[in-house]
Amino acid sequence: MSEPVTLTPPSEHPPISDHVTRFDPQVAHRRVTPRLRPWRWIVSAAVLVVLTQFIVGVFTNSHYEWNKFWAYFTRESILDGVVVTLQVVALSAVVGLVLGVLVALGRLSTNPLINGLSWAYVWFFRALPLPLLLIITFNFSYFYPRLGVGIPWGPVFAEVQTSALTPLAIGVIALSLNEAAYAAEVIRGGILSVEGGQIEAANALGLTKARQLRRIVLPQALRSIVPAYGNQLVGLIKASSLVYYVSLLDLFGAVYVLESRHPESIVPILIVGATWYLVLTAVLSVVQFYVERFYARGNARALPPTPIQRLRNFTTSSYVRLTRRGF
């Protein structure tokens, strides 16, 4: 049998030493400064030197023919190609998102038929290469000259000629079908990321499934859906260059035709095409950042700083550090 434990009364505790409870006047006036990290500044300076040398080398290299850049950058055929690219991306993104939401809800459905059809859709269009899908869509009128709406094995109420589809419509249809398959998985993953306790609480409150989805699930799921779907839209901008397979002159098609007509200016024309794609992607990235920042409200203690705020904070902190060190 173990011996009983004897507790020491509070009055018998050893006294706390005097140097713990009192401030040392020689230490109190000292200023706390952040730890110096010289290697961080050395590496940053080295990277900045290499980057500066690369940029200067690019703009001083005569083989890039920068004197022709602006002439081709604002050329009418290039601007028309940019407009077509924006049309294709915007229409495909909207149609693909709507169809992707329906497929994602079908994947989450408890109905085995709807769930199976939604799974088959995602499997088929993710497995099919996009150039092949564009070619099949382009030749769709060969297999089905007419599409109609009516009673099965009965009269047809309305029909359309598939041969009347324009290259823009063909490109949007193919890109939308492909985009919807990936968007469905992004949306399904975002919905599944919501904690099950949220659904249980909504069921306890007697909310309908539609209201649960609209008021509880989607506002939380969008925090994880927006970054992933923004990445999908960046991929869609690049994938839109494949509509040249269906005789649609987008930005890539305009660049290709222009360089075939001016073989002596291939390099500046290619740089123009790359620059326009970089501009479109940069604009989309800025929009994505602010959308993510909007949906981060209420979840993060502090909203992520904008690039301008981050630059201002860095400049201010660097100035304070240099001032403290007597520079």
UniProtKB/TrEMBL annotation:
Q: Where located? A: Cell membrane
Transmembrane region positions?
39-64, 84-108, 120-144, 242-259, 265-291
Domain ABC transmembrane type-1 intervals? 82-288
Question: From the UniProt record, which GO molecular function terms apply?
Answer: transmembrane transporter activity
Q: Name one GO cellular component term.
A: ATP-binding cassette (ABC) transporter complex
One GO BP annotation is: amino acid transport
User: How does the record say this protein sits in the membrane?
Assistant: Multi-pass membrane protein
- Signal peptide span: none
Name the InterPro entries for this protein: AA_ABC_transptr_permease_3TM, ArtM/GltK/GlnP/TcyL/YhdX-like, MetI-like, MetI-like_sf
Pfam families xref list: BPD_transp_1
Instruction: Name the UniProt key words of this record, in alphabetical order.
Output: Amino-acid transport, Cell membrane, Membrane, Transmembrane, Transmembrane helix, Transport
The keyword Transmembrane is annotated on this UniProt entry: yes
Entry similarity comment = Belongs to the binding-protein-dependent transport system permease family.
* Name this polypeptide is given: Amino acid ABC transporter permease
